[in-house]
Amino acid sequence: MIKNIVKSVIATSLFGAIVVSTATTVSAAPAPAAAQPAAAQPAPVTFNRLLKKASPTNLPPAEDGIHDPTVDSAQMLQPPLQGMNGLTRSNFGNNVNWVNSLQTKKVIPRWDRADPNAESLVMDVNIVRTPRGSMPDVVFPHKAHTEWLECSNCHPAIFVPQKGANQISMAAILLGQKCGVCHGKVAFPVSECKLCHSQKRAAAAP
Questions:
Q1: DSSP alpha helices (H): ranges in the chain?
Q2: pTM of the predicted structure, to 2 decimals
C-alpha cells in the first residue's frame, strides 16, 4: 500500500512568510507472505528393505538394536569393527569382502566346535539360471557357499535340491525369501546386481 503524506513547510522570502504544502510518498512494508503448508511426508517403505533409509552398520552389540544393552553379555561381545579389522574391504554391505577374506586365509571358519581339525565338505559346482528380460545369466557358485555353510543351511527348507523345483524371482528375494534369506542381511545386498548376474547370455540359435 502507498500513502501520500502532506507536510506544510514555512518558507521565508522577501514577501514574508509563505506556507508551502509538499507531498511525500511513503511505501508501506509489504504484508508477510502466507505460510505454506508443510509438504506431506512419503509413507515409509516396508516391502523393499533396499529402499529404506540406510542405518549405521557394524555398531557395537550394545547399540545395534539386536542385543539387550542391559545385560552384561552385550558389553562383553567383541565390537564388529574390531573383529573385522584387517579383512578385505568392499564398498557395500558391511564393507567386508568375505569371499576374498576367506580365499586369502584372513578368516578360517571352524566346522566343528569340539574338533578344530574337522574339514568341510566343499562342492565346486555352479548352477546357471537364465532370467527373464535382458539381464545376464545368474551363476550360483556352490563353492563360495559351502566353504562357509553346511548343505542343511539351505536344503531343503529354502531350496529344494531338485531341478525345476524352485521358483525364484527378484520380488521374492526383496521380500527376504530364497536368496534374500541371507543376502541383504548377513551377505552382500542384492543391489550389487553384477555379483549374481555375472555370465553373459549365450547367443540365441538362428
A1: 72-76, 80-83, 98-103, 142-146, 170-174
A2: 0.65
Q: Give the single-character DSSP code of 120.
A: -
Distance of alpha carbon 139 from alpha carbon 127, whole angstroms: 6
| Eight-state DSSP code of residue 64 | S
Q: 65's torsion region: left (phi>0), alpha (psi -120 to 50) or beta?
A: left
For all residues of the chain together, what is the average pLDDT?
82
Rounded to 5 degrees, φ, ψ at 97 are: -90, 95
DSSP letter for 29, please: P
CA-wise closest residue to 78 among 97, 59, 92:
59
Structural domains of the chain in order of their starting residue, each with its CATH number: 110-201 (3.90.10.10)
Q: Which residue has the cell 535382458?
A: 134
Rounded Cα distance, 176 and 52, in Å: 14
* Mean pLDDT across 69-90: 92
| CA 61/CA 74 separation, integer angstroms | 6
Contact (Cβ atoms closer than 8 angstroms) between residue 179 and residue 189 = no
Would you list the DSSP string of 2-14?
EEEEEEEEEEEET
Please tell me the distance from the alpha carbon of residue 170 to that of residue 93, in angstroms, as a whole number.
18
Contact predicate 84/101, CB 8 Å: no
Query: Can you read off the three cell numbers belonging to residue 192?
Result: 550389487
| Confidence at 9, pLDDT banded by 50, 70, 90 | very low
